[in-house]
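Issue 218. Parser rejects a valid record. Input:
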Amino acid sequence: MTNGLIRAALAAAAIACAGIGASACSTGEPANAVSADDRAAARIAVTIESTGGRHVFQAEPARTRAEQDRGLMYRADLGPESAMLFFPYPAEGGPPREASFWMKNTPTPLDIIFIRADGTIATIAENTVPFSEAPVTSGEPVAAVLEIVGGRASELGIAEGDRVSWPGSGR
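Output the parser choked on:
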């Protein structure tokens, strides 16, 4: 195809999108979205030891400020063992601090598990409300945060005080 034909095809596509609305021509995700294959390749095992047993989640690490800011926004493909681990928290490092999350652009209810520096669960915000901009806070300084599908913590008997570990956590 010549450059002129390519430009004409792109212009026609732009006009078609403008005529039917941009949402029909996009996935609803930002252009910098990470592919499912890339997310799967980067997962790490996060283990929670509770009175209900040992539970292992396959967590996507969110290490950088950009990854932590994005979190699980726009994601509707989460399975029962899916998770996102925010570690270190905050991404810039430093001592544990109180965490504040929200559910903006997040279509799936989540259980947000706030983890102390010693690896124990400080608090769990269960079944957070999709798309809410209300702050969800840890209530005390934490060193990591784990997000899992809403309702799973209760279903598995995960509770405050349970121990959380992952490769490189030192626990």
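Fixed in the parser; the record now loads. The first helix runs from residue 3 to 20.
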